[in-house]
Design brief:
The complex is a heterodimer of chains A (47) and B (224).
Chain A lengths: L3 H41 L3
Chain B lengths: L1 H23 L13 H28 L2 H33 L7 H22 L3 H15 L2 H11 L19 H44 L1
Helix pairs in contact in B: 1-7, 2-3, 2-5, 2-7, 3-4, 3-7, 4-5, 4-6
Classes of the chains: A mainly alpha (47), B mainly alpha (224).
Chain lengths: 47, 224
């Protein structure tokens, strides 16, 4: 099979972009969830 | 639990799509195995256009209704569309190098696609420059409506101009088309990538909703 390394490289890079993007969104969502909890408890305690 | 199931389904569909593209689809007669990149490249482009269409509609709805959920949807779909168009711009040259002997050429299709990528990078950059959320939403909505004008241009570029990029294989008129097995594999890839796009937009939308919640809580904290 000719050029199969290029084919696999294209698929790997494509998947890496999608997965990497999903990870960054997930990380930002977790950080914001923590912020929400922190701010809610700060408001409750009257700070 | 629902999210984990959705993620599992999307990953499963992507796995099936990749397997079908690499091992089930027949080898193309003139290009050989390098043509298999087409099953990722072409649906990624169509899915990016769909995401930008969602942004366009959400931007229009924001301009007319001024509801922040349309701003959230607009930016979410724009960012996801940008991820898909980045895949298009990377997989294209990987295919082009062994087939054309060059990685890139400034023909109408490639140039208009690169301009599309730049337009949506600018859309996201513009949002970082404006602090007031209402002004940011309105400015980016107006910009997003104009940015979308490049999508039909990219789509029609290979019909309007003589390009190095191959002519359309679907709906391209007489003498064009795909073998039925290839069409099936292409359809599987479309389904997998559309489901990925929906999943990512939902995740990204949640991020915007949380960001707005944090802003409200901060304002409440400052007022208290």
């Amino acid at each position: 099979m000719k050029n199969l390394d290029s084919v696999f490289a294209a698929y790997l890079i494509g998947w890496a972009i999608f997965f990497g993007y999903y990870l960054t969104v997930g990380r930002r969502v977790s950080a914001l969830r923590e912020d929400v909890e922190r701010l809610k408890s700060a408001l409750k305690s009257g700070r | 639990m629902k999210k984990a199931l959705a993620a599992f389904l999307v990953v499963g569909l992507l796995g099936i799509a990749a397997y079908a593209s690499l091992f089930v689809a027949p080898t193309e007669r003139t290009m050989g195995d390098i043509q298999r990149i087409f099953y990722l490249h072409m649906p990624s482009a169509v899915v990016a256009f769909c995401a930008f269409l969602v942004t366009f509609v959400a931007n229009l709805l924001y301009v007319f209704r001024r509801q922040e959920r349309w701003d959230w949807l607009g930016v979410s779909a724009a960012e996801v569309g940008l991820a898909f168009i980045s895949v298009v711009l990377i997989t294209g040259p990987i295919w082009a190098h062994p087939v054309w002997g060059i990685w890139w050429t400034w023909d109408a299709r490639l140039t208009s696609t690169f301009v599309l990528w730049l337009l949506y990078v600018s859309y996201l950059l513009l949002r970082t420059l404006v602090e007031d959320p209402h002004r940011r939403a309105l400015l980016s909505a107006v910009y997003g409506i104009f940015a979308f004008l490049d999508v039909p241009l990219v789509h029609m570029s290979i019909r309007w101009w003589r390009t190095q990029h191959p002519q359309p294989v679907l709906m391209g008129g007489p003498g064009t088309g795909l073998a039925p097995e290839m069409k099936r594999v292409l359809l599987i890839n479309f389904i997998a990538l559309v489901s990925l796009m929906i999943f990512l937009v939902r995740e990204r939308y949640e991020l915007e909703a949380l960001r707005a919640q944090v802003d409200v809580l901060r304002r409440e904290g400052e007022a208290a």
